[in-house]
Amino acid sequence: MTVSIRVRRLVAGAAATGLLAGGAALGAAGSAAAAPAPASATAYVAGDHHSQCTWKKGHWEKKWVKGHWEKKWIKHDHRTWHPPFKDSHGKWHHGFWTDDSKDHKKNHKGHWKNVWVPSHWEKVWVKGHWDCHHR
Fold first, then answer.
1. CB–CB of 82/95 below 8 Å?
2. Per residue in 29-84, pLDDT tens?
3. Which residues contact 36 (CB under 8 A, 6 or more apart)?
4. pTM of the full structure
5. Which residues have a Cβ under 8 Å from the Cβ of 114 and sit 6 or more positions away?
6. Strand partners, 119
7. pLDDT tens digits, residue range 93-107?
8. Burial class (CB in 10 A: 0-12, 13-18, 19+), 12
9. Residue 3, Cα to own-chain centre: how many angstroms?
10. Can you tell me the distance from the alpha carbon of 69 to that of 13, in angstroms, rounded to the nearest whole number?
11. 9: Cβ–Cβ under 8 A, 6 or more apart, which residues?
């Protein structure tokens, strides 16, 4: 947006300069018809009534996020707790964990998995920016 406004102002400035030069040449020749044209062109360049830009401060905004696939960490919990007990010989055994997974050395912590996240509202931070309205 800002590039198009700058380009438009540059073109309007070039046109105003051409009109001013043409108006000065005609004014020197004694023609009164060219005098109002440069005044309106400079008012257009200086005022730029066709766009109005305002500064919008940064703020939090609610945004609707469509459903999508997302990688999430899935934690494995293949362990079983065995409570403390006395065996048949009267010996006390402390409680302990056992790993029940087939390949417990490889997969004992977890893995990444693609899961579907349904559509939802999410708060996002919008940076401060210029908001230009064309009229």
1. yes
2. 554 444 444 444 444 444 555 668 899 899 999 999 999 999 998 877 667 888 99
3. none
4. 0.32
5. 69, 70, 71
6. none
7. 898 887 766 555 554
8. middle
9. 19
10. 51
11. 45, 48
Tokens at 119, concatenated: 């559509």
Measured on CA atoms in the order 28, 37, 11, 128, is the torsion positive or negative?
positive
Identify residue 129 by its one-letter amino acid code. Answer: H
Question: What pLDDT sits at residue 66?
Answer: 94
For residue 71, the cross-strand partners are: 114
In three-state secondary structure terms, 9 is helix
Q: In Å, how far are 29, 42, 97, 134 from 49, measured between CA atoms? A: 32, 12, 76, 9
- 36-47 and 2-28 helices cross at what angle (nearest 10)? 160
Tokens standing for residue 67: 């459903």
Q: Which of 57, 107, 48 is nearest to 77 (CA)?
A: 107
What is the CB neighbour count within 10 angstroms for residue 94? Answer: 8
Distance (Å, whole) CA 55 – CA 37: 33
